[in-house]
Amino acid sequence: MNRWRALTPFPRIMLCIQAGLLLLFTALYLTLGIQRGIEFQEQFLRQTKRGEDTVYTGTLDGKTVELTYTPSGALFYRWGNVEYGPYTLTEDPTALPPSETMGRVTGVELRLDGEILFRGGYGVDGFYLVNEDGTKPNRLEIIANGTAYGLDGSRQIYEEGLSITRAISLLLEGPSVRSRVHGEGYFLGTLVVVINAVAILFADELFRWNLRWSIRHPERAEPSEWELFSRGFSWVLLTIVALIGYMMGLSGSA
Questions:
Q1: Per-residue pLDDT tens digits for 25-51
Q2: Are 8 and 149 in contact (CB under 8 A)?
């Protein structure tokens, strides 16, 4: 309490901001942390139950997007008001071309509403896709960290239903369910907040501790105007770093 009374208004304000950040983001992480879902096109889709179906819902480019898994193993995809499906997948080793029997390649048959959409070999994460007759599908893409990219590097938007690569990935590998928040972001933000609070509360002690290696009798030294400015600047900078860390954990970028 005596240390608090000895502080000038600015460090008091900065300490209050540290406490506010910690309380605010602790509440947010606890609230959002109980939500489970998947990453889809750089967006978080929240997991819900609709009868016996498992539904992942979110927003993609301003429209509602839904992925619905049924107990039978079928997948429905909705973007806006249009729904596509059911997509169904069967693993079939005979779908592999004779020359494509090595490596981590799986023979699959993908159907859309009962009609064969693709039959052939599928490699890990969609980096490999070949038809049963050995030819390449017309539309290829690469899936990385939950986002699909065309061969030109552009992000894919599924306005006309799921692509072959995406549909196979979602059905064969299944949804990778996670919490809406990343604990690393909370840890980083809290660590910086604590460091900043200590730096504010013990600013003079830290100042003189650093001087003890350079001068005699550092306890007699008084901070200059430049030292006081540098302290304030570092406190503000660390506050911004803490805020960024917290936000990264909430956005999924951690």
A1: 999 999 888 888 888 877 889 999 999
A2: no
Cα atoms in the 13 Å half-sphere on the side-chain side of 169: 25
Residues 181-208 have pLDDT tens digits of 888 899 999 999 999 999 998 887 776 7
**How many CB atoms within 10 Å of residue 10?**
14
Count CB atoms within 10 A of the CB of residue 111.
17
- CA 198 and chain centroid, separation: 30
Q: What is the pTM of this model?
A: 0.66
Of 254, 143, 134, give the one whose Cα is nearest residue 189.
254
DSSP state of 172: I
Tokens linked to 212? 């003890």
Residue 245: which H helix or E strand, with range?
A: helix 225-251
Cis link prior to 86 (omega < 30° from 0)? yes
Q: pLDDT tens digits for 83-119?
A: 888 999 998 888 887 765 555 788 889 998 888 888 8
Note whether 213 and 229 are within 8 A (CB). Answer: no
Residue identified by tokens 């490999």 is: 128
3-state secondary structure of 13: helix
Q: Which of 100, 139, 102, 138 is nearest to 120 (CA)?
A: 100
